[in-house]
Design a protein that fits this description.
The chain is an all-beta fold. About 5% of the residues lie in helices and about 45% in strands. Strand 5 and strand 6 form a beta hairpin.
């Protein structure tokens, strides 16, 4: 992978505020983007600033190299709060190009220097999260039903891969609530609340190219309890928790292998957030690191500022860090209308998928997100879940 370097985006702006309740005049701004590698050319540059409040998008697809490591774009934008993204292909030789990307939340208020991060897009083929079903179902009586959540992974390469040792992760932070966290480790690692690992010696779970591997909550025939659910007995593995609560216990299908529990925030049973406001990832812990070593060396304590109607408070929290370099694939989830930020680094996923408008929207039940398919049968994987997934699809069709 190309070495990730920092980039600096210079937004040179001259803005005039016409009135407190009027639209700010749009004026030309030169945008200079420092590239992560020296290059001989740039192909298909695209800079987009999407206004978070008004929903307007400002796009420039005209860029020119002013030296071998800087591209200049032009754009007219008013004062505002934006999601800023840049994509391009860097031409390093006559026959070789590679993709780069930027993504950041950006406040444009006046002339100022804004530092951003550039990174090469990882194009390595491996497993991907192909289908995420975390919202659960409802019974015919309209009651929420749990236990039938699942994740479908697909081998998106052209060779047989083994699911042994894959780790399933859920994020500590939520995409609908932004905090200023100290220390901020997002550029280095994924802060997680739950880690479960597929068992095996390295050859137990072969998955052919294009094949699926299903991780279930409870690998049961849920139709016996809820006519609106699925028969999940064909799942490849399930996660099982030994609960310390006598009233909240898990159910084990002895015919389906259990995942190894590395860590979970709860002492009862892990239920992935059913509002779809967290992020999920799959990865691998290096063979040289034992579970005990991981738990000893990757604990994460942090502080953050919580702003409420009652006041502003400094809070603290704990999680575990999973280094970004160990992650194979990550997917951000957030209801469309309440998204505030991305809790994983944008090199892992610079967008988000959803099944509902709000977290409490009951239309989410029975719906999942499914990764789109390329013409050659492989799955779309651009590390941008906003464009890689089909939203609000019927769940359970893989069983």
């Amino acid at each position: 992978m190309m070495k990730v370097k920092s980039i600096v985006l210079f937004v040179l702006c001259a803005l005039m505020l016409i009135g407190c309740n009027e639209q700010t005049t749009q004026t030309p701004k030169g945008v200079l983007i420092r590239l992560p590698e020296r290059c001989m050319g740039i192909v298909s540059p695209r800079l987009e600033l999407k206004d978070r409040n008004m929903g307007y998008s400002y796009v420039s697809e005209t860029g020119a190299l002013i030296n071998d490591s800087t591209v200049q774009m032009e754009m007219d934008i008013p004062i505002g709060y934006y999601d800023c993204s840049f994509e391009a292909q860097l031409q390093l030789s006559e026959h070789y190009t590679y993709p780069v990307r930027l993504f950041s939340n950006l406040t444009v208020a006046d002339d100022r220097l804004i530092e951003m991060e550039a990174f090469a897009v990882n194009t390595k083929k491996d497993f991907v999260l192909a289908e995420l079903f975390v919202s659960g179902t409802q019974t015919p009586e309209g009651k929420q039903y749990t236990g039938d959540k699942y994740f479908r992974l697909v081998n998106n390469s052209d060779q047989t891969l083994y699911a042994d040792g894959l780790v399933l992760l859920e994020s500590k932070f939520k995409n609908n609530k932004k905090y200023e966290v100290t220390p901020d480790k997002k550029s280095e690692a994924f802060a997680v609340d739950a880690l479960y690992r597929v068992p095996g010696d390295g050859t137990r779970f072969p998955v052919a190219p294009g094949g699926s591997f299903i991780i279930a909550d409870n690998a049961l025939d849920h139709r016996s309890y809820n006519a609106n659910s699925f028969d999940m007995r064909q799942a490849d593995v399930e996660w099982y928790d030994v609960s310390t609560s006598a009233t909240v216990t898990d159910v084990d299908n002895a015919a389906v292998p259990n995942m190894d529990k590395i860590y979970c925030y709860t002492l009862s049973i892990w239920i992935p957030n059913n509002q779809g406001i967290t992020s999920f990832a799959i990865g691998r812990i290096p063979d040289t690191i034992s579970t005990a070593q991981y738990l000893a060396n990757y604990a994460y304590s942090y502080t953050y500022i919580n702003v409420t109607q009652a006041g502003t408070f400094e809070m603290s929290g704990n999680a575990y860090l999973f280094p970004n370099e160990w992650i194979i694939d990550a997917v951000n989830l957030c209801p469309q209308s309440i998204y505030e930020w991305l809790v994983v680094h944008p090199s892992l996923d610079c967008g988000f998928a959803y099944v509902a408008q709000t977290g409490g929207d009951k239309v989410r039940y029975g719906k999942c997100v499914k990764r789109k398919q390329n013409e050659d049968g492989t799955l779309v994987d651009t590390n941008n879940s906003s464009s890689d997934f089909e939203m609000a699809q019927p769940a359970g069709t893989c069983f």
